[in-house]
Amino acid sequence: MKLRLYDTYTRSLREFEPLHPPEVGMYTCGPTVYDFAHVGNLRTYVFEDILRRALEFNGYKVRHVMNITDVGHLTSDADTGEDRMEKGSRRTGKSAWEIAELYTEEFKKDLKRLNILEPTIWCRATDHIAEQIETIRCIEKKGFTYRTSDGIYFDTSKLPDYGHLARLDVAGLQAGTRIEMAEKRHATDFALWKFSPPGQKRQMEWDSPWGVGFPGWHIECSAMSAKYLGEFFDIHCGGEDHITVHHPNEIAQTQACFGTRLANFWMHGYFLQIDDARMGKSVGNFLRLQDLIDRGYDPLVWRYFCLGAHYRTKLNFTWEALDAAVRGFQRLRTAVHEWGEPSQASEEHLSRFTEFVDDDLNMPRALALTWDLSRSDLPAGVRKATVLWFDAVLGLRLGEWAPSEESIPDEIASLVDERKRARAERRWKDADALRARIQAAGYDVEDTAAGPRIKRR
Ligand code: AMP
Ligand code: ZN
Which of 452, 431, 29 shows the shortest CA–CA distance to 235? Predict the structure, then answer.
């Protein structure tokens, strides 16, 4: 059986064939760097990492491009409201450029902690203003644009199948929308270039053939994916929210300019939910990876938790479910550690594993098979060699974990408890003395909202 992937564009499972084997071009919409990523965002990046690893497992050479949105993403997807970067700048008192730098670095740190492979190419929107202007000029030349008092817009009525990806009811949308239209001619039209507001100097603005301003959010992905992957490439992915606005607009731009639907496969990861609602920065119900770490969770537990659900189902977050993942993951890596040195992998298990990976990345079944392997009566060395192969896709660092670093000796644990008591009774001098003893024994204690955390110095 060959690798089969679900393509949102055709709403079907399709056999994957690279356009230019053995190379595969893959573009993933990256973060808007006005704030920290939350664990919901990170679920999408874990899904994309599994996809990339699955392609490599199949012997393909993946050229993976990820953008960083550091300009143009407004607070409302209807091309109104403030630029998220400028808003983030006001919130933090730092410049838009500084926060872009800061949150890009934080994002990269999160990817590393989740053992997500680094993209082959990172590209920042602000480093590609010329390419974006060029793409808009191309769209303009083909007759798909119009000008309003605040920018240059894409006229979606000129594309007969605009919104196909989302199966959008364009006529219905048009009839139903009166709000947020401003001077837009159609509800689904979107900004390609926005003018800086009159009399106001933005932190991020550029000269263009149409006037000083900044690019709309969608144009960066069309311009940069074409630059690094060509006008038609293998796979484009992102979170499910992109099915309705961002990706149809990327497709419209590319169709107008190059006549292609940009990518051969369109793939989408479903949302992480909390209390049955989407986890989101704007909803304000989000957790960062760092929050989990502060509560004593190993960041790879998040990865393990994500693998427990298929990427095309919503995943509901609860602390109980996360704790169950902790126990499962801990049992698994302890077992793998105890299997010692690898010998020869089990062909039978490898072929079943490949079958699950190739069946649209069925990670829940791949994990279940890992447990089967663990419980099997195969020699330990065979189990070890096999699981190391699995881990090329799972990415759980199963071969690297060893128990010793994690365990805290009893006498240190009791000093920490004593210190906790001292602090609760406001005996600060005693607490300080206990901290000094803990440090002298080679450990650091850090006070977090979830209680003290102990680390080797
Ligand atoms: P943003 O930084 O807001 O542009 O989002 C980055 C990525 O995370 C996009 O691919 C979104 O589709 C995705 N995303 C946003 N919220 C969630 C969520 N609750 N669960 C999974 N993915 C999400
Ligand atoms: Zn994009």
Answer: 29
